[in-house]
Amino acid sequence: MKYVLLFVETEQFMNDLDAMSQSERERAYQRVDEWFAAHSDKIRGGQKLQGPQTATTVRLEGGEPVVVDGPFVEGKEVVSGYTEIDVADLDEALRVAKAWPGCPVVEIRPVE
What we know:
This protein is an alpha+beta fold. The protein has one domain (about 1-110): Dimeric alpha+beta barrel (Alpha-Beta Plaits), CATH 3.30.70. It is about 30% helix and about 35% strand. It contains 3 helices and 6 strands; from the N terminus they run E-H-H-E-E-E-E-H-E. The strands form 2 sheets. The protein has a 4-stranded antiparallel β-sheet with strand order 2-5-1-6. Strands 3-4 form a two-stranded antiparallel sheet. Strand 3 and strand 4 form a beta hairpin. The protein is flat, with a radius of gyration of 16 Å.
């Protein structure tokens, strides 16, 4: 079964990352690289996304579509990347997500 893991950064996570020394930040990124390597047999794609300030949103509610600069919602959590995994079931997807060493929130969604 295929799932998408949405990696969500919080404001606190970004502040903590900014406060790290260069060597601490490199070690944090190394743990993420190790996670991808450890789960490479399940990963089918994914990307890191540019920051929310680069987003463009099209709102389709009501009459004419409205194009808005910025993310679709105002909030303190931002989807920063995603990966698609192919696993046996939700339990396996949960095991993979629980091992994620990066940002503090991972949303799991099945792919139709």
